[in-house]
Amino acid sequence: MSYRTYNIPMSAGKLTNLPVVGRYVRPLKSQGEMTLYLDGTEAGLIAQGIGVHIPEGVRSIGLVSPIAQTVMLAISDLPVDDGRLSFDSVVSVRNEYRSFDGDQFMVSGSVAGDGTDWATMLIKNPSGSGKRLIITSITVDAQGNVVAIYRGTGSPTLSRLTNSGACANKYLGKQTSVSTYEQGGNFFPPAGAENVMYLVNDTNKTPFVKDFQNSPLVIPDGGYFYMGIISSLGELHYFVEFEES
């Protein structure tokens, strides 16, 4: 295969995997926006006339249409320049739509250790929320200290609470997240927590930014995201961005 067209029957709201995997996919005839899936993971929006360059190594390509329709697709196993968008561009378009829909959220704050515990923040996705929290990026300034990031299941509490509340919507005026945040101090991560990574930002206080856009962290219903510095005297300044789905 170098370049072929396919007519793909699609049911409303159901994932349809394409018959072949190529490096370029473009809907030639379709109605409305469809959701693109790469290896079973939601990757962005696609519509008639928008060509998408698929990263190497992808094993399956799928689409979800909001309506029942037959979509005509052009699929090529070679890169094509005709109206192509890169995968990063598709992610950017997707994020813009998610913000307009009120599905993107953020939380920020600053907290210091009190000399006996570690400065800590926590985002909880309550049991029964029916939502997944998709962590897309974090920005941290820990003034040269090591930052430990964990995730787990349950509803832990901090030993010292200085602030808490709802996580804000990126769209001003839209409803807040189903999740809540807490900040304060804790001696150790919650029992059973899974370590995700350690971060170290330099002593010049340059913020560390970790972008998870292409491979996000997912906190399911009943889970939590936990971040704290490994120092009883340090300060944690943070900004976390995430989606709900």
Written account of the structure:
The chain is mostly beta strands and 245 residues long. It folds into 2 domains: 3-100, Jelly Rolls (Sandwich), CATH 2.60.120; 105-244, Sandwich (Jelly Rolls), CATH 2.60.120.340. It contains 1 helix and 21 strands. The chain has one helix spanning 87-100; strands spanning 3-10, 15-17, 24-29, 34-38, 41-46, 51-53, 61-64, 69-76, 84-85, 104-112, 118-124, 133-141, 146-153, 160-166, 168-169, 180-186, 194-200, 208-211, 217-219, 223-229, 235-244. Strands 10, 12, 15, 18, 19 and 21 form a 6-stranded antiparallel sheet that branches. It has a 6-stranded antiparallel sheet with strand order 14-16-11-20-13-17, with no helix packed on it. A hairpin with a 2-residue loop joins strand 4 and strand 5. It starts with a strand and ends with a strand.
Briefly, what is this?
The protein contains 1 helix and 21 strands.
List keywords for this structure.
245 residues; mainly beta; Jelly Rolls; 2 domains; 6-stranded antiparallel sheet; 1 helix; 21 strands
Topology, pairings included?
Elements (H helix, E strand, L loop, with lengths): L2 E8 L4 E3 L6 E6 L4 E5 L2 E6 L4 E3 L7 E4 L4 E8 L7 E2 L1 H14 L3 E9 L5 E7 L8 E9 L4 E8 L6 E7 L1 E2 L10 E7 L7 E7 L7 E4 L5 E3 L3 E7 L5 E10 L1
> Which consecutive residue ranges, at least 5 long each, have pLDDT under 50?
84-90
CATH superfamily of the largest domain: Nucleoplasmin core domain
The helical percent reads under 10%
**Structural class given helices, strands, pairing?**
mainly beta
How can the largest sheet be summarized?
6 strands, antiparallel
What is the CA-based Rg, rounded? 21 Å
How many domain modules?
2
Question: What is the second-level CATH architecture of the largest domain?
Answer: Sandwich
